[in-house]
Here is the input.
Amino acid sequence: MADQSIPDARTPEAAVEGGTSDKVPSQDGLTRRKLLGTAGVTGLVLGAAGGAVGYAAAPAPATPLTSLGADRAMFHGKHQAGITEGLQARGHLVAFDLAAGAGRKEAAALLRRWSATAQRLMAGEVAAHDDTDVARDAGPSSLTITFGFGYSFFAKTGLEKQRPVALDPLPDFSSDHLDKARSNGDLWVQVGADDALVAFHALRAVQKETGSAARIRWQMNGFNRSPGATAHPMTARNLMGQMDGTRNPKPSESDFDQRIFVPASGAKDPAWMANGSYAVVRRIRMLLDDWEQLSVKAQEQVIGRRKSDGAALSGGTETTAMDLEKRDSNGDLVVPLDAHARITRPDRNGGAAMLRRPFSYHDGFDTDGVPDAGLLFICWQADPLRGFVPVQRKLDRGDALSKYIRHEASGLFAVPGGAAEGEYVGQRLLEG
Here is the structure.
């Protein structure tokens, strides 16, 4: 887990990236833009008023479709959806292996079906056939469906010459305790939405459209805080209670595309990866029983940031630059040398940067009552050998957090650029 994240509430930038409409009417005629403009002032007051309504003698009036349900991400575009949008409340990750005998032709037909389904569901429409009605009452709810290819996909489809060098398997790390059955895969699908039923409906539709072309290799479920749950937009917290970083690259930065997306020309990657990205997926279990035995001060020393507000231990606010040389009255570094936030800084890793977009997960308890919970770590970069790998190698050599986490599954996937009108995702690879 690197010291980088994106907000868990919709920001104006995220709305633009996701194609969110400003014209979502409410009962009193307010537009969504006006609602957003007053949210920071009225959020807490509205919450109190809502609680009072619950005690009224008459039942509360029906609520119209809210902006949360009406928010829509666009299927067609320069990049696939599910990369630059804000964190979503519910997520599903699933990997598939092509069936025995299935090759390039079957894979192309599958991606064509998947893309058609994703386009319909992301628009808030029902599936083309055999819809289950699970999401019938909801709007799009910011649904995104993202598709990627694993290393093994290319040999099975006879496309080895089109396999990017950046997709070479990740090196072994000393902190790995990987379950091979829950790692990698020929095809990868990420589903995210701000409503649990909408997300499940999409996951089920993708699985049904797979038919006999592929079989599920592994599947994982995750969640984040629901948009609007806090009085104002803020960095998400993970299951350790820490703000999960503030140093994520931002779309407004001049070099954002260069660091996150494969350029349309002049890249060492094959042409079909233009405007695409590489996703590293890691299931990171948090050893919460051990972590929660630490005092808050000890937890802050491990991370290098205050738990209350995410500010660096060197002082200031969450966004204040960390002073790595500051010392206390005893002459000790305020931010310890092995603090997670210190080690993961881009300027300490040759400028390595990645866009983190994770989900938390909880898969119940072991027989001894230990929670099986942690982070579905997903990071995006133009080249994992310059993004994820150098940072993880540095963490391997002395991260204080390593005592409290365990990497249990891993995958690396090439995620092509978005499909143009009339195209399906991956068409330039499969029909090129």
In short: DSSP finds twelve helices and nine strands in the chain. The chain has a mean pLDDT of 87.
